[in-house]
Structure formats: C-alpha cells, structure tokens
From TrEMBL:
Function of the molecule: Is involved in generating a small heat-stable compound (Nod), an acylated oligomer of N-acetylglucosamine, that stimulates mitosis in various plant protoplasts.
Organism, as annotated: Phenylobacterium soli
A Pfam family assignment: Polysacc_deac_1
Residues of the signal peptide: 1-21
Stored InterPro entries: Glyco_hydro/deAcase_b/a-brl, NODB_dom, Polysacc_deacetylase_ArnD
GO CC annotations, alphabetized: membrane
Gene3D superfamilies: Glycoside hydrolase/deacetylase (3.20.20.370)
Gene Ontology biological-process annotations: carbohydrate metabolic process
Sorted UniProt keywords: Hydrolase, Metal-binding, Signal
Protein name as it appears in the record: Chitooligosaccharide deacetylase
Length: 311
C-alpha cells in the first residue's frame, strides 16, 4: 500500500503538465474609431461590424478610448461607446487627446489621462463599471524612468493597470488607405490592402511568437495591439482563424496578464515606444533576434503618410 502511494506520488511529480494553452488578448485602441472619416454613419457601421464579429467569433476584447474623438458630437461619441458597453466589452483609458509624454511632460500627460478618466467614469457609471486598464498612446511610457514612475504612480493610485503589448502588426498603417478605398467605393483596392494586411499580420504573429520563445525559453501569453478600424471590422474572421491555426486562444486581458512574464520590471526608460518584448530584452540583458522581422509594405506606409493629417 505504502509502495503504491509512493509510486503514485512519483508519477504525479514526474507526469508532464498538459501543454498549456497559448493565450492572446485582443486589445483595440483609438475608440470610438480609428478612421479617415468622422461621418457618424461610417463610424457606426465600423463599430457594429466589429462588435458583431467579436461576438460571432467568441473573441474576448478590450477597447481603449480617446476622449477627444467625436468631441464636437458628444451624443455620437456616447452612442458609439454605448454599443461597446452593451456588447460587454471592457473600456479602458488611452488618454483624452492621444498625446505623447515625451512632448507634453509627465504633469500635462497625467492631466490628460485624468480627463479621459473623468469621461470614462461618466460613460461607464450607468453600467456600474469603472475603468481598470490604461494603454499608452504610441506605447510611449515617458522620456525618463522618473517620469515613467510618476505616471505609473498616478495610474496605480487611481485603480489602473497598464496594458502592455507583445504583438504588433502595425494595423494602423493599413487602416487609413483601406478607409480611402472603401469611401471611394474601390472594392479592388480595398481587397488588395486587406490581402497585404493579413499577409503582414501572419509574418508579425510568427516573428513575435518566435522572439518571445527565444527570449523567455517558453511561449508566454500574448497581448496583441489592434485598432478600432473598418479594416479590422472587415477582417476579424480571418484574424481569428489565423490565431486559432497557430494554437492561440483568444482570452481576456486579465487572464493573459497572469503570465509571470508581465511582472518583469523595467529597469531603464524607454522613450521610443517599444513593445514589451524589447523592454524585457533590456531587463534580461538578452538581444532579440530580428531575423525574419519585416516592416509594413512601403506602399502602405507611404499612403498612410499622405492620409494621416494629424500632427
Ligand atoms: Zn492609439
């Protein structure tokens, strides 16, 4: 009897854990929409399609709100954000004016976060919710470590956790040229941009997974940065299939953030807006292998530079 118990204990210790599911959190920035057009009808269609596909594909998600979008039409802004709230998608803070702490300084930057916080609390109050997550615009966390710590202290004191990013597919580079094609009614051009976007996303997913595996010696759960664009509204089914064929399970941000990798402390300021793999590589003193990494297609980048008139 005792021998059997000992064997059983040995078996339990030695038995391999079942392969942990590799999770990915989908995070959508620049709500209500990242778009070439502030036409409420266009924004509403984008929002409806995004939310319908999130539900159909059973994709947990979080949206990060920029308060000054649709500032002149607060009723439109409230209606668009109300759709996300009713769909059960959590809303987080992405600052009020999408500024950079490098340009504004920490104090003005914190005031801008607080302004977005006030708007979010007002919008979320009827649903008895409060904002819990913050995403830095441009992933810029502060020009010095002291600035970064000061911003982090405000966030923590006000109930926020920071949403890191460990997969980037530069979807914002494709979004405006796609809008332009859709608004012109040029379906051929739109399909071509979407094709380039999906091909580039596959390259990025594979590179980030490989880089994370090499850096940590295991596959961490991932946080993917996306934007609330028409392009993503029209591509969510393809994106979901791309994740699932790679064995990635779309999961809530809270769950992904339980991965211990996200506890790796930053030891040096990162003024460049780098993703968190690059930040971890600094802390762990281990270079990332950039082999296989590609920049977005030059024609798409050029089209975005032409269309993006914001400073
Ligand atoms: Zn943004």
């Amino acid at each position: 009897m005792i021998r059997w118990a000992a064997i059983l204990i040995l078996f339990l210790i030695a038995a391999p854990h079942p392969a942990a599911a590799e999770r990915v959190a989908l995070t959508f920035d620049d709500l209500p929409t990242l778009s070439l057009s502030e036409d409420p009808a266009y924004a509403t269609t984008t929002t409806r399609r995004l939310l319908a596909d999130l539900r159909r594909e059973r994709l947990p998600a979080i949206g990060f709100v920029v308060g000054d979008k649709f500032e002149d039409t607060p009723a439109v802004r409230a209606a668009l954000l109300g759709r996300w709230i009713r769909a059960g998608v959590e809303l987080g803070n992405h600052t009020y004016s999408h500024g950079s702490p490098n340009k504004m300084g920490a104090e003005a930057y914190i005031a801008d976060i607080a302004r977005d916080d006030a708007l979010l609390r007002q919008i979320l109050a009827p649903a008895h919710r409060t904002p819990r997550w913050f995403r830095h615009p441009y992933l810029e966390t502060g020009p010095t470590l002291a600035d970064q710590r000061r911003i982090e202290a405000w966030l923590a004191a006000n109930g926020y956790r920071i949403a890191p990013v460990t997969v980037v597919n530069s979807d914002d580079q494709f979004a405006l040229p796609y809008d332009e094609a859709i608004l012109k009614g040029d379906r051929g051009a739109a399909a071509a941009i979407q094709g380039e976007y999906l091909a580039y996303t596959a390259i990025c997913l594979d590179w980030y997974r490989k880089a994370a595996l090499e850096l940590l010696g295991r596959r961490p759960d991932l946080v993917m940065l996306l934007h609330a664009s028409r392009l993503n509204a029209d591509s969510l089914g393809d994106l979901a299939a791309m994740l699932r064929t790679r064995g990635l399970t779309p999961s809530p941000l809270d769950v992904v953030m339980r991965d211990p990798a996200y506890a790796i402390a930053e030891v040096q300021a990162d003024a460049n807006g780098d993703d968190w793999l690059e930040r971890w590589s600094v802390t762990l003193k281990k270079d990332l292998d950039w082999t296989g990494f590609q920049d977005p297609p030059a024609d798409v980048v050029a089209a975005t530079a032409r269309l993006d008139t914001e400073p």
